[in-house]
Amino acid sequence: MYLLCFNPRRLAVGLFLWLLFCLLAFVPPAEGSSQEPLLEAKSAVLMDALTGQVLWSKNPHKQLPQASTTKITTAIVALERGNLTDLVRASQRAAQVGEAAIYLEEGETLTLEDLLYALLLRSANDAAVAIAEHIGGTEENFVALMNQKAWEIGARDTHYVNPHGLHAPGHYSSAYDLALLARYALKIPKFREIVATREKVIPWPGKPWDRLLVNTNQLLWGYYAYPGADGVKTGYTREAGQVLVASATREGRQLIAVVMHSPNMYQEARALLDYGFQHFTRQVLVPAGELITQAPVKGALVGTVPLVTASPAVAAVPREGQVVWEKEITLLPELKAPLKKGQKLGELSFILKEAEVSDQKITVDLIAARDVPRRPWWVAFLQGFLGVFNFPWIRLN
């Protein structure tokens, strides 16, 4: 027989410390902290959704397994090449895909819209394959379309082998590319609507009940709910660890946070978003319709055309301190009449020097402020005639 002896005071102190540890370990980080994030994720990026500027990064171009964040590009290709009302029939191959699923059966038919909800909320791998085969004819053809689209968007550190993100050699992305792809996808209204949805009911043919899809992104609901959260996609495999592409909008400003191989993707994404909203604001560098320069035009009755900004140039800038922007004007070579009002003739770029923020280049189109008609033939003839007889006091533009 053994007699268990203990000190009540030590036991009470131990219990108190254990409870305190639990509270500190699981309470979401406080909002509004302006301190620069200290993340354990292998790779991370904070991007301004409007401008595409990277506001904070850690190994942004490191190629890593991306897990189910793959489905962002799957959805982009499906939305751009398919119709939401398309009827999609699940193949045996789709029905047999493992892990996260809505348990499609071979021959089961759902609309493309329902499958997109399953893809982006439930992260259903069977839905991914069904969509891929419907749009591409085969899964392999669809993956080729995914790689082509990622390249067009500018994702140079991304390569796909499948449409769902289950681990496979040669299947990878980077935090910067995931932010870039999410920024592109969020411009598609239906994508934006789906990823902001907390739950959705879709049919389950042959069953006496429907399917309830709950968004896997807990920034939208529950314990980790983040004010203003409106997307985007979670991911997890053993090789990729926790991966999260998150977006949130406050006071008209949308930020995109990406963490890859994170020990706690929600806490670290929240820390990035807090930092961005607290530490940065938006600045209008030049309004729309601002006269920038007069450009020479060949073959015109009037030899120049005024160029104005087609839209405002807006940048994300630190709330504290001043930044100096360098202007750069690029015009199309040899402008020739006729020109139409509103025609793009060049670009105005703002480049940030000595920036604490990386990738700072804001570009806006320059357009013609008025029509520029071609010079009539008789004016050209008269100019040549006057030139031959050297009448310097008479000039025609």
UniProtKB/TrEMBL annotation:
Catalytic reactions on record: Preferential cleavage: (Ac)2-L-Lys-D-Ala-|-D-Ala. Also transpeptidation of peptidyl-alanyl moieties that are N-acyl substituents of D-alanine
Taxonomic superkingdom: Bacteria
Matches recorded under Gene3D superfamilies: D-Ala-D-Ala carboxypeptidase, C-terminal domain, DD-peptidase/beta-lactamase superfamily
Keywords for this protein: Carboxypeptidase, Cell shape, Cell wall biogenesis/degradation, Hydrolase, Peptidoglycan synthesis, Protease, Signal
Domain annotation Peptidase S11 D-Ala-D-Ala carboxypeptidase A C-terminal: ranges: 280-374
Family: Belongs to the peptidase S11 family.
Enzyme class: hydrolase
GO molecular function: serine-type D-Ala-D-Ala carboxypeptidase activity
Name of this protein: serine-type D-Ala-D-Ala carboxypeptidase
Keyword Acetylation: no
A Pfam family: PBP5_C
Role this protein plays: Removes C-terminal D-alanyl residues from sugar-peptide cell wall precursors.
Pathway(s): Cell wall biogenesis; peptidoglycan biosynthesis
Binding site for substrate: K233
Catalytic activity, EC: 3.4.16.4
GO biological process: cell wall organization; peptidoglycan biosynthetic process; proteolysis; regulation of cell shape
Active site residues per record: S68 (acyl-ester intermediate), K71 (proton acceptor), S123
InterPro entries for the chain: Beta-lactam/transpept-like, Peniciliin-bd_prot_C_sf, Peptidase_S11, Peptidase_S11_C, Peptidase_S11_C_sf, Peptidase_S11_N
